[in-house]
Specification:
Number of helices: 9
Helix content: 10-25%
Structural class: alpha+beta
Distance between the termini: 19 Å
Strand content: 15-25%
Order of helices and strands: HEEEEEEHEEHHEHHEEHHH
């Protein structure tokens, strides 16, 4: 997969401008061959495709954000998953943020979702797939994790578990991020045969109202870097239903108190994040993505 560009703006003019301002201002995809560039949290997306606002088994939500763009593999995956949702008893899916038209750092919200291979899927089973644009701005998803973060709520159903199984069983998926309580609940009925897909379900903070799908770098995407370590490494070859999972509802919520130190503390420099990145921080190919017509 080669990235070609027809440049419409002088690349040298980008200088040290903030990358999220530049990418956030774009309203269309680059005129290039599809290519995820860089890492999920530091990169951009060439030749992205827009998920149609409404389909037979899905609706894209929060359209005002302009984040219903992704690599062709992601758009196809979401459409496939929406059809799987029908099989578990849902009308389809409400799909949240994917990426900006050209990916890159966002002006608000996510640190990742930069290369068109991340997408958020709402935990709310659709009541209608005919919502207006205004309704999609006002409606909200539902929490399936309790406020103390230790268990699922009454909103959690067997259909949620079946949908996540279908989502993770797809070979295109690298991992899926969920609230720790969700993974704990799924582990209660885990079988040995579930290991290949269940190890892809990864606990993380937040994610009480949606799950976050991350795809592998597509075949031939030489400018893309799939996340390391792998889920197999993180789960030590198992299903991830181990002490590392319990950490999220023990030490993560109540960190052990550190022993007092007699040494004076050195000031910790603030860690730079995606909203601090300039174009110089991103892969060089992202300048062409930004400059393309």
């Amino acid at each position: 997969m080669l990235v070609t560009a027809a440049c419409a703006a002088p690349i040298a003019s980008y200088g040290e401008q903030l990358a999220n301002k530049l990418f956030g201002a774009k309203t269309d995809a680059s005129d290039q061959n599809p290519m995820p560039i860089g890492t999920y949290a530091k990169g951009c997306s060439a030749g992205a495709v827009q998920l149609p606002e409404t389909g037979p088994t899905w609706q894209a939500m929060r359209l005002s954000r302009g984040r219903n763009w992704g690599q062709p593999e992601m758009i196809a995956y979401l459409q496939d998953l929406s059809r799987e949702a029908v099989k578990v008893g849902w009308k389809g899916l409400y799909i949240g943020d994917i990426s900006q038209p050209r990916g890159g750092p966002m002006t608000s919200g996510h640190s990742s979702h930069q290369i068109g291979l991340d997408a958020d899927v709402w935990m709310l089973p659709p009541s209608s797939l005919k919502l207006s644009r205004a309704q999609r701005e006002s409606i909200s998803s539902i929490p399936v994790r309790s406020s103390d973060q230790r268990s699922v709520t009454k909103n959690w159903t067997r259909s949620h578990a079946l949908l996540l199984k279908a989502a993770a069983s797809d070979a295109r998926v690298d991992r899926i991020f969920v609230a720790a309580a969700v993974k704990i609940e799924m582990c209660k009925t885990a079988k040995a045969s579930d290991t290949p897909w269940l190890q892809k379900i990864r606990p993380i903070y937040g994610h009480d109202t949606h799950f976050h799908v991350r795809l592998k770098c597509p075949s031939g995407a030489s400018n893309c870097q799939t996340q390391k370590p792998t889920v197999a490494t993180l789960s030590k070859g198992g299903n991830g239903c181990d002490e590392t999972l319990q950490w999220w509802v023990t030490d993560y919520l109540n960190p052990p108190k550190a022993k007092p130190s007699t040494k004076p503390k050195k000031p910790t420099p603030r860690k730079r994040g995606p909203r601090d990145y300039t174009m110089a921080d991103l892969p060089n190919q992202c300048k062409n993505v930004l400059a393309s017509r």
